[in-house]
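ok, trying the design again with the full structure, not the truncated one.
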């Protein structure tokens, strides 16, 4: 069953189309990374999915219209926005008590286990924590909620590399159970590549790539060639070429790997490499619409 189904989503702010006809389908039990440059429309898309903003087009999340049935949806979905909002006066322990009191699907033992892996002092107020610590607290609270859909907008912003790694490990090992659906946006693509089952690129309010990681790995390839093979490699219509230590690395969509292997070392490119190849020169914010 689909967890998220969007067709022709459009959202305009004045003369700016933040979403310009987004089609996206996410099946239950998938972990989708929504990747895009600054201003591409990621947060707007997540807000539409969470019923925080109305938009045109068709949108169903867990079978509901998020704008009209937000209350019902929020019983089964939870999210972390890129701008975390926790009151500055609340202590860490009180924040846990509060969510335990108001959220029927909150598992205190899970939140405690998550917090135990951090250096968060329980008796300190949010206002006295570092930015990264506030994010850690926020993550501990949200990851302890038993939800069908978890939406994460830049969840590791401001966190150090050790905690970022730990967060994604526990997202995969402790939180993900194969049935929940996770939607995550981040600029730190390399760090989540191994976590994702699917990836979508958004640019200028449009989805420009939507693929399972399996299909992605079969579809894109990269070859590193010595200068004498560069012309032959260019003749095979690469999407992108870059130079590293005097060698050319060329990236292809649906190329014949056996042919590429005759020219140099072939490998599967990272999401970041394909992102640069597809969007690099065209990265931009929303489309301007005719007034
Ligand atoms: N409330 C708003 N009012 C006016 N314009 C907005 C509003 N929210 C977003 N936009 C515009 O819509 C476009 C998409 O913004 P959005 O925040 O969705 O991008 P993003 O991909 O999340 O960017 P980033 O990676 O920088 O957070 C941008 O051009 C932005 O300026």
């Amino acid at each position: 069953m689909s967890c998220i189904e969007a067709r022709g989503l459009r959202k305009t702010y004045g003369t700016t189309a933040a979403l310009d006809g987004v089609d996206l389908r996410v099946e239950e039990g998938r972990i989708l990374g929504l990747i895009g440059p600054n201003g591409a429309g990621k947060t707007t898309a997540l807000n539409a999915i969470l019923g925080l903003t109305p938009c045109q087009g068709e949108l169903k999340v867990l079978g509901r219209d998020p704008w009209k049935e937000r209350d019902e949806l929020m019983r089964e979905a939870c999210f972390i926005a890129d701008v975390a909002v926790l009151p500055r006066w609340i202590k860490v322990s009180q924040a846990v008590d509060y969510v335990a009191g108001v959220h029927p699907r909150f598992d205190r033992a899970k939140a405690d286990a998550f917090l135990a892996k951090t250096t968060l002092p329980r008796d300190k107020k949010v206002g006295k924590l570092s930015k990264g610590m506030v994010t850690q607290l926020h993550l501990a609270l949200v990851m302890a909620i038993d939800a069908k859909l978890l939406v994460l907008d830049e969840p590791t912003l401001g966190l150090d590399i050790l905690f970022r790694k730990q967060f994604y490990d526990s997202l995969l090992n402790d939180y993900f159970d194969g049935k929940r659906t996770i939607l995550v946006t981040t600029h730190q693509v390399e760090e989540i590549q191994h976590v994702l089952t699917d990836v979508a690129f958004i640019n200028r309010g449009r989805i420009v790539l939507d693929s399972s990681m399996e299909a992605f790995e079969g579809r894109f390839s990269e070859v590193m060639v010595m200068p004498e093979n560069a012309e032959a490699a260019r003749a095979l219509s690469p999407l992108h070429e870059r130079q590293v230590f005097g060698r050319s690395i060329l990236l292809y969509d649906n190329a014949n790997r056996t042919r590429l292997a005759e020219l140099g070392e072939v490998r599967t490119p990272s999401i970041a490499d394909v992102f640069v190849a597809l969007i690099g020169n065209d990265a931009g914010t929303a489309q301007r619409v005719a007034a």
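Keeping the full-length input from now on. The chain has eleven helices and 14 strands.
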